[in-house]
Specification:
The chain starts with a strand and ends with a strand. The chain has 381 residues and is α/β, with parallel strands linked by helices. β14 and β15 form a beta hairpin. The protein is 35% helix and 25% strand. It folds into two domains: 155 residues, VC0802-like (2-Layer Sandwich), CATH 3.30.2130.30; 178 residues, Vaccinia Virus protein VP39 (Rossmann fold).
């Protein structure tokens, strides 16, 4: 079966590793465009939806074609030619979720209307049944995407709520980090079981919590199953998911994880989130200043931070001061094998601070986060 996943653009190499672990065969990686195409067996559906930490949505790929000067008639024809009886039962409802990128003489609404008409007519042709449309709570979600001259049609196995919504969050920080990006940063750091992980500006605790869930082999889908569910269950039933769940072995080991923040309100919220995720016992939440790490810690192995950007602080001067003082303090608690991972939209100011404090940049790459282009830095001494 053919699939494609969507994810935060920039994380393709990290998400590829997950797909490899799940035994998917990569067909195409669209770097910095947030899409990976691959093939594999049916078990990839519950594996990715329930176990993946960096992917946001999994779709079954039904059709893909480059069509120069693509028109609404082209979309109608291709959707009409698909055998929908394999994917939608007679009593089930469906909804088209359209997407358009590029210059066209039609809108995404037009795509949804035409594709919906084609699907209904196609099903009537094959089953003599007129399917019901339910835009709010459909049994089956069909993705019809026109990306420049390419038409992609797929069945959404995840649902309208993407996989970055884990389900454990009970407190929302005004600028909390996407959970899939947080997990990608942890993977990037190669954090080992016996090492200390510090998030010095932890906000609502996403990085420490995702780290704890990762080390304890707790599936991200465990919490979202009850809150949001998985759309593939409506298509295939619970058998596939139950089989995967039986193979999971979690642990209750205690790991060295520290979440630091100077705002007590955020820390209290982080604790509530960690409690909801059943990992509060392995995270030490501390009220403290990220620019004075050397006053509290002697040695840290891995530091991962999502510091405030100019948008959140209101002043470039304040951001520059924060970045300089943070890196200066961090340098004092790092040793030869320590790693520092930072994601920020103020990459120029951060690079200046990196140079001023004589860090070595091992890697840097762009990541799209909530419509904002950010940059990830991997630093060592």
């Amino acid at each position: 079966m053919d699939y494609y996943v969507t994810l935060s653009p920039g994380l393709e190499k990290i998400s590829k590793n997950e797909i490899d672990e799940f035994k998917g065969k990569i067909n195409e990686i669209r770097e910095n465009r947030g899409r990976i195409f691959f093939s594999g067996d049916l078990e990839l559906i519950p594996k990715i939806n329930y176990l993946s930490r960096t992917i946001e949505r999994l779709n079954i790929l039904l059709y893909r074609e480059e069509i120069p000067n693509i028109s609404l008639d082209d979309i109608y024809e291709r959707v009409y030619d698909i055998d929908w009886t394999e994917w939608i039962k007679e009593h089930q409802s469906f909804a088209i979720r359209p997407l358009r990128a590029g210059e066209h003489n039609f809108t995404s609404i037009d795509i949804g209307r035409v594709a919906g008409e084609a699907l209904i007519k196609s099903y009537q042709r094959d089953k003599n049944v007129r399917l019901k449309v339910n835009l709010d709570e459909p049994d089956v979600i069909v993705r019809v995407e026109v990306i420049f001259d390419e038409l992609i049609v797929g069945i959404d196995t995840t649902g309208d709520v993407a996989l970055d919504k884990r389900g454990y969050r009970v407190f929302n920080h005004p600028a909390h980090l996407n959970a899939t990006i947080a997990s990608a940063l942890i993977y990037l750091s190669n954090w080992k079981d016996d090492e200390v992980l510090l998030d010095p500006m932890c906000g609502s605790g996403t990085i420490p919590i995702e780290g704890a869930l990762m080390k304890r082999n707790t599936p991200p889908g465990k919490f979202r199953e009850e809150k949001y569910g998985f759309k593939f269950v409506d298509i295939f039933g619970y058998g596939l998911l139950d089989k995967i769940k039986k193979e999971i072995v979690e642990n209750k080991n205690i790991y060295k994880i520290i979440g630091l923040d100077k705002n007590q309100k955020y820390l209290d919220g982080a604790k509530d989130n960690a409690k909801s995720a059943n990992v509060l016992d392995t995270i030490d939440f501390i009220c403290g200043d990220a620019t004075k790490l050397h006053e509290r810690f002697s040695s840290i192995d891995v530091i991962i931070a999502n510091p405030p950007y100019g948008i959140r602080m209101g002043s470039k001067r304040a951001v520059k001061k924060l970045y300089n003082e943070f890196l200066s303090s961090a340098k004092n608690i790092m040793h030869g094998s320590s790693r520092l991972i930072v994601i920020t939209a103020e990459d120029k100011l951060f690079k200046e601070a990196v140079a001023k404090n004589n860090f070595e940049v091992k890697d840097e790459f762009n990541v799209m986060f909530g419509g904002l282009m950010t940059k990830v830095f991997y630093l060592t001494l």
